[in-house]
Amino acid sequence: MAMSMPRITSCSVSECSYNMNNECHMLAITVGDGIHAACDTFVRLQNKGGAEATGGVGACKAFNCQHNKALECIAVAISVGPHSGHADCKTFSARK
Fold first, then answer.
1. What is the Cα–Cα distance from 67 to 44, expressed in whole angstroms?
2. Residue pair 3/50 in contact by the 8 Å Cβ criterion
3. Average model confidence (pLDDT) for the chain?
4. HSE-CB for 94 with a 13 A CA cutoff
5. Most distant CA pair in the chain: distance in Å?
6. Are 59 and 27 in contact (CB under 8 A)?
7. What is the pLDDT of residues 45-84, one digit of tens each?
8. CB of 54 within 8 A of CB of 25?
9. Exposure of 19 by Cβ count < 10 A (0-12 exposed, 13-18 middle, 19+ buried)?
């Protein structure tokens, strides 16, 4: 079964090198460290980089999120925002 990669509809973490005009320009990010839904792809450099495309979620390690199925994000889209000096997936929703 083919899956489509969830798009990152917005990223308000302007200090990330992949953020340009509140859009993520990394082809695919990784979310989570097992428990926390941090954007593991977040990088703070002076240079901006990335692709000329809107980013997507390549993998999700936040296993306690209701949108996580077999380490893949099954949400239609996500948003990313700041949290304690790093970037978090704001679409994260704990399993019930």
1. 27
2. no
3. 93
4. 3
5. 41
6. no
7. 999 999 988 999 999 999 999 999 999 999 999 999 999 9
8. yes
9. buried
